[in-house]
Amino acid sequence: MGERSGFILWFTGLSGSGKSTLTNHLAPRLRGLGLKVEVLDGDEVRENLSRGLSFSKEDRDINIRRIGFVANLLARNGVCAISAAISPYEAVRQEVRRRSEAPFIEVYVNAPLAVVEGRDVKGLYKRARAGEIPHFTGVSDPYEPPKAPELVVYTGQETVEESARKVLDYLRSRGLLPAG
Amino acid sequence: MGERSGFILWFTGLSGSGKSTLTNHLAPRLRGLGLKVEVLDGDEVRENLSRGLSFSKEDRDINIRRIGFVANLLARNGVCAISAAISPYEAVRQEVRRRSEAPFIEVYVNAPLAVVEGRDVKGLYKRARAGEIPHFTGVSDPYEPPKAPELVVYTGQETVEESARKVLDYLRSRGLLPAG
Question: Which fold, B7-111+144-173?
Answer without folding.
Answer: Rossmann fold (3.40.50)
